[in-house]
Amino acid sequence: MRTAIIVLLSAFALLRGTAAYAQEESIFVYSPNERSGLHVAMEDSTGWHHLGQLCSSDYGTWGAEKRMYHPMLKRASDGSWRLVFQVNDYSPLFAAAYSRDLVTWRPQDYPIVSAKQCLQPVIVQDDGDEFTIFFKDKQGATYAVGATNDFRHFSRTHAYTAPESVWHYGRSEQEVDGKHHQGQCFSISHDEAERLRRHFQALAVDGRLSSERMHDDAKTLTALPSSLKATLTVEAGSAKTISDKLIGIFFEDISYAADGGLYAELVQNRDFEYSSKDRGEWNATTAWHSTTPIEIATEHPLHPNNPHYALLGADTLWNEGWDGIVVEKGKKYDFSMYVLAGGQKQDFDVMLIGGNGSVLAKSRLKTRAKDWQQYTTVLIATGSDDKARLAIAPRKAAHVGVDMISLFPQETFMNRKNGLRKDLAQTIADLKPKFVRFPGGCMSHGQGLENIYHWNHTIGQLQERKPDFNIWHYHQTRGLGFYEFFQFCEDIGAEPLPVLAAGVPCQNSANNKDGIGGQQGGIPMEEMPAYIDELCHLIDWANADPATNEWARRRAEAGHPAPFNLKYLGIGNEDIISTVFEERYEIICKALNERHPEIKLCGTVGPFHTPSADYIEGWDYTRRHPDYQYMTDEHYYESTGWFMHHRNYYDQYPRTLSTGVASPKVYLGEWAASTNVKRPNIETALAEALYLTDIERNGDIVEMTSYAPMLCKDGHSNWNPDMIYFSNTSIRTTPAYEVQRLFSVNSGDRYIKTLLTLENADLQHRVGASLVSDSKTGKRFLKLVNALPCRLDITVKGLQLPSTVQCEQLSGAVDDQKAHAELITTDNPTLLPPYCIRVIALQ
Ligand code: AHR
Asked: Which residue's CA lies nearest to atom 2 of ligand 1?
């Protein structure tokens, strides 16, 4: 520690805080305000000028957190950089980051300290190559924590009275473009300065390109002729094998996708488990009504995982459903309810009541339950209403417990009990997805450690399942659980791709009661073996023999003795690739690979594409471990301009690693193009279709893709754009859906080299083509995309096209949100109208 202080003090002697570099230039590093992250300015003869943002705080939840206070940057003796900053004034942790060149930053770590707060952290390099971080608490007590040279491992906190000078480490005030800021000055070499300049120039160019909009074409592409010529050259003998699972679906319970959505249950809060954890104003009686206050009890519950139930007196109990209950004349509805009545006889009239008070269906339920017992009846509708309510009327004054009150249409997808809404599931099935990723998204890793999705809480009898709050601010019954997900996959012929947490919750988690947010330190290491067992149990549950395996026995008891044949398992969802994450991720993957080498593991590389810190660190990790990393999950939501200008994104991915081993594959697990309109339209569809022609070309390295999110219920949106919007009575597929369907239904497992060149090379990014073949059927599918406001007249070389073809085509005005693909017959297959996607199936 003493040597650290000496080094610190001698560093103060240097006016600009660092050693001299040949041909030096000066930089000023500062944070304009707590929400803006760390910025850099450069000096010229006229003063300091802003260059760009180096990094920003990734700590905690959006809104309340993601702040950076008192950043302190330290140049280490080897020229690399360390950064610490305070994240707020109440959490017992600080932020630590590392960079070799100020351009690429390793994902941030948030070491937890044993002090109440962690204010104004500063770094001192010890005389070895390690570091000490000093900080204060609100009382002014000072502490020290040691850090390894790689800034990934931090020692215990010690109370330490550091000299006052530690807190004045050469900060200065500078005027940057007319505004005064506190920060630090450094001298860097001319080459380093050039690199910084080039980095920000490249970002600016990318930003300009990414802002290109088809919506602006009428203003920006005025000089175009009515038709442009292009040449499509097909190298018939050049087929390469590509993934036959390129298009799948992403299912997350977001925007009421599950309860109130795909899951066909018509009763809301059937379990009386709604609470303020789900949403501030909710409680066990939410969605239920009665003329007198509804009594809720917890003594002797139906199951400990469902502790609340209602006590019925003389009054009728009403349920409002999910924005009402849709009742259709002639249809049958399965009603069920658990009753606890101490053996007394109690009859109920169960009714569906229309908005005008008319009785649409009625049945008598006779009960005499000693202990909890389930009673069922079928309601047959004699009328229709979109906003009916369920009424349960005791025939005489009662004092009975009721729970798990359920109403399902008998018609569900494939008529499964506890099944899925038929029309919605069919709309998804029509996509012919090759796989289904579930249960999310952020919902998989959850809001805080307590909310990590545990697959084994979602199987078994409905009352045994553990309901939980949803990270998207509502309640999950878990009625749509792992059994139902796997069954759906089987029903639609898709591979199941469960994605579960890597032992850390969502990095955007709010602070817990100890003031620790983000990944919250992860599942404690001593609990990780149990968590790993839980993941292994999933594989057993899905694949093992019920005769010999306890978990498989549960699958069989639920109605599926045959294995589900699970092949893929995702670990982690766009996590920040912190040290906390990596430590857990590594032991999970090693153990899974050892115990289940047959399972293809999928990792994660954070929420953004290159050059984000998590992407770089995540891919670095993935490529260092091809032995157990089959593929990794990339996520990016981008502008239409970005997609049009990154057409070669995957062309540059190495297929073989430097060790000669094949590279792990890509799973583009969440992606969508969007504009400021935040709804899929022809413009976003064209950008996605162009990109998918590139993905097909790169189908040897890209294994899977899934557009996200998939479902959004009207009035309950957490996210836009989505692929399918729905209400209780309608389903609106979007142009994004059409693109996914066109590419999925017309997919292959061979890519035939196809080059589409436009006479106007500046607009090359606006056209795309790909040709794939299906080795099983021998069919070939030619996809042509014209994202230009004029016709595209294509001359084809190397491929014989019939003079007349029947094909599917999606086209329209760029802002059109309602367009659907049409089956057309054309005797000009390669003359494309403006803004058009055409798919031609060839024998
Ligand atoms: O798709 C919506 C959300 O986007 C997912 O939950 C999350 O993984 C991503 O940030």
From this structure: 709
